[in-house]
Amino acid sequence: MPESKNARPLTVKRLTNIALYYLGRYESSVEQLRKILLRRVLKERMKGADIPADIDAAVDSIVIKAVADGYVDDRRFAEGVVRRCQSAGKSRRYLIGKLKTAGIDSDLILELTAALTDSDLDAARRFVQKKKIGCCRPLEKQKECFKKDLAAMARAGFSFEVAKQALETGEDGDFYE
Q1: What is the pLDDT of residue 144?
Q2: What's the alpha-carbon Rg for the chain, to the nearest Å?
Q3: What is the mean pLDDT of residues 80-95?
Q4: What are φ and ψ of residue 45, in 5° steps?
Q5: Spatial CB neighbours of 62, under 8 Å, sequence gap ≥ 6
């Protein structure tokens, strides 16, 4: 592949700086950082940059150093995701999927989800309030939008029973028909 005029060589130092810049802006899991660095290597390779042959080993060493220096901590990352998902009214199923995608260990996922204080119904009610669906809609629109709201709840990862219960009850516990 011909080398581009703008393509700078990708050195270990440059890749380390890329990792530190990213970690300065975002919290990351070990697996996410590895994926980001490998994606950057691929991007530079497509530009035609000069890339060392042992770049995969360099990526692994950068990730290990970031963990050792405390820049990356899977537990800290996962606890932050759990906090954000809980306050946003996300379902337990959504939360587990998000953590698995980030490469978090299944034992840690089980530990964190077991420690959740909110039930799925509480999260579903928060979701209903944030999206202004179900009982938070004007009374004349509630019935005609029920199926649409139920579908939104299903896409958000809530079970049928939890979604139905969250959509039908208001803050005062009244059911609508």
Answers
A1: 87
A2: 22
A3: 89
A4: -65, -40
A5: 12, 15, 16, 19, 37
